[in-house]
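fyi for ur records
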Amino acid sequence: MLPLAERMRPQSLEDILGQDHLLSSGKPLNLALSGGHLPSMIFWGPPGVGKTTLARLLGKQFNRKFFTLSAISAGVKDLRELINEAKSQKFFNSPSPILFIDEIHRFNKGQQDALLAAVEDGTIVLLGATTENPTFEVNAALLSRMQVYVLKHLEERDLVKLIEHIADKDELFQNKKIKVLETDSLVELSGGDARKLCNIMEIVGNLPQSEINITNDLIRQLVTQNMAIYDKSGEMHYDLISAFIKSIRGSDPHAALYWLARMVDGGEDPLFIARRLLILAAEDIGLANPNALLMANTCKDAIHFVGWPESRIILAETVIYLACSPKSNSAYLAIEMAISLAQSTNTAQVPLHLRNAPTQMMKNIGYGKSYEYSHHHPGHFIFQEYMPEQLSSKAIFKPAENPNEQKMKMSLLEWWGEKYK
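which gave:
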């Protein structure tokens, strides 16, 4: 028997739930398709909202040859072979076949570049699905040849409709007496993801009882006992990344590598991990070792370039480096304090000597007057006020107790004396 999520897959565009903003009459995707033309497109949205289904149904509606690749496992060689096959099957005015690439954001630049010519000359119509912002994850040349459509989480009414359809129609429930008494937990735990909802309902349908009352308590009990239903967008996803970040912050490379391995084994997007490492490098290591941010950024770029599975080695090296690095959150604390101060003093005036004076009138009323150009003074420093008058004694940045920031502190004391004591 096919999984419930597969059995519930819509069989026509009219059956798709939750994407009325694209598919209803007069809406963008509906209009784009109404003339019988199928452009290359990227479907951007969270898991379980119908990106793959939409691509398949477009292939069915337009009666095109449909090729599928997964960006997780396919390489440039696979792409070229498939494009050559598409060329060999295209005769005269026959319509271009569709190439659907799931998780297209995982393709590196070389893989994406291999698609350009085939999309541009019409050898294929490219349909891509991604959970990541394509502006950041798909190179500009390829993106300029495609339309981007944003799919949304399913709303409560759509999820309830799916629950009722499953309970009434699916074979799993045909020999059971089902009463849907409460749906709050089903809606909450599915998080707008139809696939996750189907996974939960499949657990319900496999209960041995012939009579089942679906209640919030029953659903929560079943989900607690079957944590495997959570995919990389669910609660376990957030628990694992939390343990991972806290292990690096706590300078424990053993634990950090273990949680990294758990995420990698679970199919987590390596670029999601890389983005979190960038944040950690700034927030938790910061000025104690500024090279940490460079290392994390290099890791992110290298993942784009190398692809999977080799990127796991790059992630491991970066994780070990960050875990073993000295730690400081002084930059994080400083910007939080600065934002709080700015919000409470948002009428404080810029001192006249710091204001730009592009016109003579501004100069006449004192804009820029008495400003000292630091580079004209010994050591490229001159003592002058840069804060609004009422905040002149306010301390925001407090160097932490590590060698790098203590060196900064000594320079600040030499320049400013009491102001940075």
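Strands lie at 41-44, 66-70, 98-102, 125-130, 147-150, 177-180, 211-214. thats all i got for now
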